Amino acid sequence: MDLKGLIDLVAEGLTDPSKAAVLLGGAVVTLLALGLGYRFLWRPEKLLRVGVVSQLLVHPLKSGRAVHVALAECLKFGLKFGELQDRHWLVVTEDGHMVTGRQEPRLVLVSLSCQEGKVCLNGPNMEEVRFPLEQPENRIIDCRVFSTDIQGRDCGDEASRWLTAFLGAEKTFRLVHFEPQMKPRRPAESEPQFSQHEKVAYPDYGPVMLLSDASVKDLSSKLDRPVTAERFRPNIVVSDCEAFEEDSWEEIQIGSVRLQRVMSCGRCIFTTVDPETGIINRKEPLETLKSYRLCDPSEKHIYKSAPLFGQLLTVKKTGILQVGDVVYKISR
Question: What's the pLDDT tens digit per position in 102-125?
């Protein structure tokens, strides 16, 4: 029935008592149905305290040293502290292919910071180099991150010479910066677990990675040499929970921020790089993780042989995160 027919029926019902009764009965049935639907389909949220934020880490340079902060903005693209946005700078080869700690382990020793409109690069036994944060006259480079195309603003020859000298390779390296007007990557193109509308700059996949202190301690208890959370490059570290409890947090709230779990983080050879020395051993802790953190056989098509450690999240609601914030699991 169209709108005109419905109006005519209501008008007729107003002059015909028998039809008015039918209309009233239909309205009552409709209201009852809506009430039952509301009762059984709408489920109120419950917030369950599951932990406390113990660390917040921003990694401005992909594979570079983490910046520990007490407070950070949590945006759709990940954590931001001042001018430093998580994984918004990237080292590339001259033809634009990404370079990470997997190929150049000493990258983990490089610190990138921003001061008064300048980007600063620091590393062991190297003089600090500074260059402008904004260099609109510099060329835009077409880059490749995990077989996905993305752009980056070249940061100049001085930064290139510094990285090339520090890494000590025969090839030339460039530093690029992702800017807001550039087309982002869609993680769903390489990892179907992500929604098609999710966008990132240079992270492997998700904009936020979460890990618990207890999970790191559990792993360390099985190693000859203990490891720290920094080795696994999380953004949010949570304390006051059980080991691997974070695996079950499908949706969480921290302050006003809401985060949605997408998948576990499958681990690779990069975990065998010591963040304090930049030395890769190609064995631990990856081998130990493989001994007890492999996925369920039903998920092998997702994770293959990668052990799982930490959770990849997307940002449902942006806001401010602080060390000491209570973490709540949302259930319905």
Answer: 999 999 999 999 999 999 999 999
Residues whose CB falls within 8 Å of the CB of residue 116, separated by 6 or more in sequence, listed in order: none
Q: What does the pLDDT look like over 211-268, one tens digit per residue?
A: 999 999 999 999 999 999 999 999 999 999 999 999 999 999 999 999 999 999 999 9
Q: What is the pTM of this model?
A: 0.87
Alpha carbon distance 133, 136 (integer Å)? 10
Residue pair 250/312 in contact (Cβ under 8 Å)? The answer is no
